[in-house]
User: Fold RIP protein from Dryoscopus gambensis.
Amino acid sequence: QMLEDPDELAVLEEIQQELILQEQSVIEEYERSLRFDEECLNAMLDGLDATDGVICPVCRKNNLTVKAHLVCCQCGLYISTRDMTEGKLRLLLESALTEHSQRCSHSPEFSVTSGTEEGASLLMSCLVCDSWMILL
Assistant:
């Protein structure tokens, strides 16, 4: 059945226009949301690229200062090393954590031990699986 009443057609056209405007509004909001998400993701990725430092495993707050013969942190970590770089230290920590995670689902703790004739050492230990490892 065809609608021939001009008033009914006008009402239907008005409803159609309102629906089109609502749809455009939703699409614009969705696109704004996508742009915002993309900007946030890019900012996070830029931030990751900017943080080349190695976070101290003991305090988990500060970046470690890594020099050829020394690894230290503002929290008091101070360990003598040989030929250490940030890259080597990062790989050492990552491989130790990966190895531990393969046999235990809990996070190990890091601490600095002293008392040896060689000086302080970085120790990774886990109370759950009763494991420990000297890293530095």
Summary: Residues 1-50 form one domain.
